Amino acid sequence: MIGRRGMLAGLGGMSALGLGLAGYGFGVEPFLRLAVQHHRVAPPGWPPGLTLRVAALADLHAGAPIMAEARIEQIVAATNALAPDIILLLGDYGATSRFVTRVLPQADVARRLAGLRAPFGVFAVNGNHDWWEDRAAQLARQAGTPIMTRALDAAGIPVLRNDVARAGPVLVGGLDSTWAFRSSLGAHDVPRLMSRVTGDAPLLLMVHEPDIFATLPARAAVTFCGHTHGGQVRLAGWSPIVPSRYRNRYAWGHVREGGRDLVVSGGLGISTLPVRFGVPPEITLVEISA
């Protein structure tokens, strides 16, 4: 039988543990951790002998104190050190939390991201927040161009809006945000993008939100997404809250369905609450081969 003193000691230990875990989730993982998450993908029909290293950066959510200038520069340097063949920027570059004390100008964020280096190119897509943070673009609907899009283009990083570009031995396609005008209406146009795919080179497809993967054509060898942040809190491979109608199905990591491959990055920044637990900020590195 446990006495009163033992019960109090046990409760005190549990409280200390809880405070420690909360301190880690709010004060350490989102600010100080930077992981490299590796995935190896072998898509059906991938050309024999072709190995491609793709680095994906998602959900930067730039803004002090969590994602200030020095942090962005750290991420850029760490990504370049991995020597990827292609770098994909998967959207949501601006701040989206009321805990941000200083918003970084879009041109400043783009200028720092322009330090990324890859022999076959650096490509970007819009995220939902890139649209939501620009009232004029929202009002113009599909005819609009978010401020962040213009900043990245001016910095020499092409933003693919339902378009395709050549990247060495492969094609890179980018769908615009499927949540551009809130979750019921997007700026994406799959038929337009697919009409621009020519030849038989493998297609790497970028789109910020992963839910569309369920209905995408099989022509894409690998689809790269962000948006979910891995749920920001992930316990034993499960995320309690995921901004997806499919919940944990597309929450994080490499997913293979029907012979098709999806990689969902856990992202770099935070949204809503300044917490990460069990899903540290990540540079997503994908090695693709036959």
Layout of helices and strands:
Blueprint: H1 4-27, H2 29-32, E1 35-41, E2 52-57, H3 69-81, E3 86-89, H4 106-113, E4 122-124, H5 128-132, H6 135-140, H7 147-154, E5 163-167, E6 170-174, H8 190-195, E7 203-206, E8 220-225, E9 253-257, E10 260-264, E11 282-288
Parallel strand pairs: 1-11, 2-3, 3-4, 6-7, 7-8, 8-10
Antiparallel strand pairs: 2-11, 5-6, 9-10
How would you characterize this protein structure?
This protein is an alpha/beta fold. The chain has two domains: 1-32; 35-288, Purple Acid Phosphatase, chain A, domain 2. The chain is 26% helix and 20% strand. The chain has eight helices and eleven strands. The protein has helices spanning 4-27, 29-32, 69-81, 106-113, 128-132, 135-140, 147-154, 190-195, and strands spanning 35-41, 52-57, 86-89, 122-124, 163-167, 170-174, 203-206, 220-225, 253-257, 260-264, 282-288. The strands form two sheets. A six-stranded mixed beta sheet has the order 5-6-7-8-10-9. It has a five-stranded mixed beta sheet with strand order 1-11-2-3-4, with helices on one face. β2 (52-57), α3 and β3 form a beta-alpha-beta unit. Mean pLDDT is 91; it is low at 1-18.
